[in-house]
Amino acid sequence: MSGKGRRGNSGDAGNAGNTDAADDGGSGSSGPNRRVVLGAAAGIVGTAGLIGAGFAIADDSEGHAAQHVAGQRSSAAHVEPTGTAPVAEEDLPGDPNWRITSAGKPGAIAGYADQYSVLPGQDFDLYVSTTSASYQVRAFRVGWYGGAQARLVWTSDTVSGSVQDDALFDGDTRRVYTKWTKSLTVSTEGWPEGAYLLRLDAANGHQRYVPMIVWSASARGKLLLTHAVATWQAYNLWGDHSLYQGADGSYGTRSLVVSFDRPYDDVGAEKFLVYERAAVVLAERLRLPIAYTTGMDVHADPSVLNDATAVFSLGHDEYWTPQQRQYVTAARDRGTNIAFLGANTCFRRVRFESSDLGTSRNVACYKTSYDQDPLYGRDDELVTNDFRADPAPDPESSMTGVLYESYPTDAPYVVINADHWLYAGTGVKNGDGFNHLVGVEYDRVTPGEPTPRPIEIIAHSPLTCNGQASHSDSAYYTVPSGAGVFASGTMRWVEGLLAGTSDADNGMDPATGAFVTQTTSNLMRAFAAGPAGRSQPAPKDNVDEVYS
User: Fold this and answer.
1) 459 - beta bridge partners?
2) Rounded Cα gap, residues 297 and 193, in angstroms
3) Buried b (16+ CB within 10 A) or exposed e, 443-463
4) pTM
């Protein structure tokens, strides 16, 4: 997204093609209000779980899913005592009490880890500041778990609490960071791969999350979920600065570099809760062979992509390095399917830099101030700006098939090819619409921009954005390797999995939840089975017809 407000859920204030105007636009009036609404949608104040109508279709098809993968399970398994068979991770009992019930004031308790991801068995350090005399840390692994959606994996001893030093500020890049004292070291010995929420539970009753990905060294034969930790950090307003605004709320005082050496704002895991959690829960509920990683880990070591059946980019995955994009594109060209479940994906080109805590602790993105980037004029292909913008334009559509267009919008999702295999079992007909599923940002197939062909538009949703009429597109294409690539064209796709439940937002109803769940289940199953171009009908290019 571009010129967003404090909530970070909203996008460019205008057409993305005019990045100067968009970024200078600031937050607009919708940002703070949407922060409050989506906090509730993330299920952070004791709401019920993903048990309602939004997952009804997945429930009905679990037997088929288990048959389809021929008994394969998630790579994570709990080891039972000697003499008993191992129990699959998703069959273990969950803990519905993983949610935050009281966040308290911002300083009540907060923390961060010295790593955003670790391999199973590796240690990481936590840095915690709290006004409480003591606290405990509980690690919850996110999954289906019979509807509980998380399992308690580990609980720390009671730790003495203290208030840590104020944030530090780098005047050159307006980077906010801390140099807190280490509070405790956490061992992940025995933790299965997966997405975790570490909950900091202060003795005074207040709580915050610290997200952690226990990533997979290999995704061979598995569907790889890729968590967008660089995007999480880009929107992080802890210390009153993000890549979108400074302490005065303006774009002009924004950070040019942001740091992982600080807590996340809000409840500590807002981007994961809103844009990623529901996809993790569904993938595990379908009992597919799953692996976990982050975009930053792919950048550092692309070997995790080797022989993966599919790579799934989740609901908001905006910030990529050129290297990550190169590696994912190469995996596609070797036969790995790619799914983009959000919009505005791979819009920003970033660079990772070191801090005192290690490598890749800072995310640089100078955006419209790209001429201040130290690499400007020296290595323009690594200068941090929008991928489509100067000084080295390379629009994301050559990989995603769709191009980010603008923000904000709210519109129905309209099906135009109901016979497509992705919609099997949904019962939709051409022209059927699902209110509020398109927003707040959207992508479309854009003739004249680099786009793989043939590409088939399967949903073409009329909308109005900033007074301009346009469309959002869901699209599917294949490449000679056999890999299939799907782009939803809307940022609300993963949120749509929650529609009809108490976690839902944006007015989406149970029918929308059922539709998105069935479509995503079809996508996950097909992509987990190998190159979709070899097992599913070929795309029928209809761009000229749709955009005639």
Assistant:
1) 415, 474
2) 14
3) bbbbeeeebbeebbbbbbbeb
4) 0.88
